Automatic annotation (TrEMBL):
<dbReference type="Pfam" id="PF05433">
    <property type="entry name" value="Rick_17kDa_Anti"/>
</dbReference>
<comment type="similarity">
    <text>Belongs to the rickettsiale 17 kDa surface antigen family.</text>
</comment>
<keyword id="KW-0732">Signal</keyword>
<feature type="signal peptide">
    <location>
        <begin position="1"/>
        <end position="25"/>
    </location>
</feature>
<keyword id="KW-0449">Lipoprotein</keyword>
<protein>
    <recommendedName>
        <fullName>17 kDa surface antigen</fullName>
    </recommendedName>
</protein>
<feature type="domain" description="Glycine zipper 2TM">
    <location>
        <begin position="60"/>
        <end position="99"/>
    </location>
</feature>
<dbReference type="InterPro" id="IPR008816">
    <property type="entry name" value="Gly_zipper_2TM_dom"/>
</dbReference>
C-alpha cells in the first residue's frame, strides 16, 4: 500500500512539471528590473504600471526563529526548557521578519 501511495504522489508531482513549457516559465520571469537611487528594485508591468520588488522576510523569519529559540532556551532556567524555546522562537521569528521587511530600502512608492 505504501508503494502505491508513493507512486501516485510522484506521478501527481511529475505531471505538472512535464506539461509546463519553457515559454510559460520564461513569460513569468521575463521582467527587466530597474534600480532606484535608494536601492529598490522595480519593473514595469504589461499594463504600464510600475511594481517594486520587496523582500518578503523569509530569511529574517528563519534566522530570527533559530536565534530566538536559542536565546529563549538560555533564558529559561527551568528544568523543562520547552516553553522558553517556543516563546523565543516565535518572538525571534516575528522580529527577524520585520527587520528584513522594514527599513528605508524596502519602501516603494
Amino acid at each position: 500500500m505504501r508503494k502505491a501511495i508513493t507512486a501516485a504522489l510522484l506521478a501527481a508531482i511529475a505531471v505538472p512539471v512535464a506539461t509546463s513549457t519553457p515559454a510559460e516559465a520564461r513569460r513569468n520571469d521575463d521582467r527587466r528590473y530597474y534600480n532606484t537611487d535608494n536601492g529598490v528594485r522595480y519593473w514595469r508591468g504589461n499594463n504600464g504600471r510600475y511594481y517594486c520588488k520587496k523582500p518578503n522576510g523569509t530569511t529574517g523569519l528563519l534566522i530570527g526563529g533559530v536565534a530566538g529559540a536559542l536565546v529563549g532556551r538560555t533564558i529559561d532556567g527551568g528544568r523543562d526548557k520547552t516553553l522558553g524555546t517556543v516563546l523565543g522562537a516565535a518572538g525571534g521569528a516575528l522580529l527577524g521578519r520585520e527587520v528584513e521587511r522594514g527599513g528605508s530600502r524596502a519602501r516603494c512608492r
